[in-house]
């Protein structure tokens, strides 16, 4: 068993959002955690960083700017990274009401909600492996389903943001299983979770309010990112700090097909 490092370096994507900022704050409450917020909007990132430092007293909080819908930006982020990375929390998501595409022509929800998790994991795998034991926490949802492997970008189906979102959250849970299998021999654990139902830009765009606070929503991701369970378990799905069965991850053929489909977005 490798000894725990003195300082745990962690990254949280979507850290200017409701749950992401609460996750970053939850990590920063641990004095051994250094937290890097990944955001696309500098003004929001600066404010979130300041709020977290003020709330926790942890000075080891900073931000880096990245458009997570773009593979080149994510790989540039990983190329510029120096030093170890022990914890990656994939959390960013969007759910525009009208179908949108990235500059590369990829449907927005598939790019941000699915491919950013995939690309962040791939781009940082070598760094995580060198820092092992390391862990990845994929923020997914219990609201998941309707994944169509032949229409991941809603080119054939009429776009509905709730359907595209549910597909993306199913994909998060399936890809967690795919990466867990691939990374288990290099001491990188990969788990998915439902956070909580929180009022946010995302949930409002989906037509929901949310009855939990951001801190309540962040509790399970923070637990997986800080407690030993997030290292000991891999390929699992959690809700309310409890492991739950995930039937999306049980269809190994479908999991593999999705992994291969995502790999083609190189
Ligand atoms: N809220 C809920 O009730 C709920 C329930 C279940 C699961 N979840 C999951 O929880 C996670 C966080 O959701 P949330 O409710 O906190 O949403 P949110 O407040 O809308 O935050 C979304 C975050 O993603 C960022 N983002 C979106 N597109 C990006 C891009 N292209 N590049 C970089 N960053 C980008 C946003 O940045 P900007 O600030 O710049 O827009 C924001 O920081 C998501 O994975 C979601 O699926 C949420």
- Rg over alpha carbons: 17 Å
Q: What's the CATH H-level superfamily name?
A: NAD(P)-binding Rossmann-like Domain
Describe the largest sheet: 8 strands, mixed
Arrangement of strands in the largest sheet:
3-2-1-4-5-6-7-8
Gross morphology: globular
Output the helix-strand order: EHEHEHEHEHEHHHEEH
Ranges where pLDDT stays below 50 over 5 or more residues in a row are none
Through-space gap between termini: 35 Å
What's the count of strands?
A: 8
Commentary on this structure:
The mean pLDDT is 97. Helix 2 links the parallel strand 2 and strand 3. The relative contact order is 0.15. This protein has an eight-stranded mixed sheet, sandwiched between helices. Helices cover 44% and strands 15% of the residues. It has a single domain, classed as NAD(P)-binding Rossmann-like Domain (Rossmann fold), CATH 3.40.50.720. By secondary structure, it is an alpha/beta fold. Helix 5 (161-183) crosses helix 9 (252-263). It binds NADP nicotinamide-adenine-dinucleotide phosphate.
């Amino acid at each position: 068993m490798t000894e725990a490092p003195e300082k745990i370096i962690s990254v949280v994507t979507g850290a200017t959002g409701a749950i992401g900022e609460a996750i970053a704050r939850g990590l920063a409450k641990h004095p051994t955690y250094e937290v890097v917020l990944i955001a696309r909007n500098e003004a929001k990132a600066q404010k979130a960083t300041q709020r977290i430092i003020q709330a926790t007293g942890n000075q080891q909080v900073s931000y880096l700017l990245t458009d997570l819908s773009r593979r080149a930006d994510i790989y540039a982020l990983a190329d510029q990274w120096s030093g170890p990375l022990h914890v990656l929390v994939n959390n960013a998501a969007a759910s525009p009401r009208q179908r949108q595409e990235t500059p590369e022509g990829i449907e927005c929800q598939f790019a941000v909600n699915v491919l950013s998790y995939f690309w962040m994991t791939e781009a940082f795998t070598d760094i995580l492996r060198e820092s092992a034991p390391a862990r990845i926490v994929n923020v997914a949802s219990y609201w998941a389903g309707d994944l169509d492997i032949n229409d991941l970008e809603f080119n054939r189906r009429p776009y509905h943001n709730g359907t595209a979102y549910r597909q993306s959250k199913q994909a998060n849970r399936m890809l967690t299983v795919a990466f867990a299998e691939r990374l288990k021999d290099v001491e990188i654990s990969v788990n998915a979770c439902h956070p909580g139902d929180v009022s946010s830009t995302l949930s409002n765009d989906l037509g929901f309010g949310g009855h939990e606070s951001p801190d309540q929503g962040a509790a399970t991701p923070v637990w997986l990112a800080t407690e030993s369970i997030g290292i000991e378990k891999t390929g699992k799905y959690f809700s309310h700090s409890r492991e739950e069965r995930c039937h999306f991850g049980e269809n190994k053929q479908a999991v593999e097909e999705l992994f291969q489909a995502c790999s083609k977005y190189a």
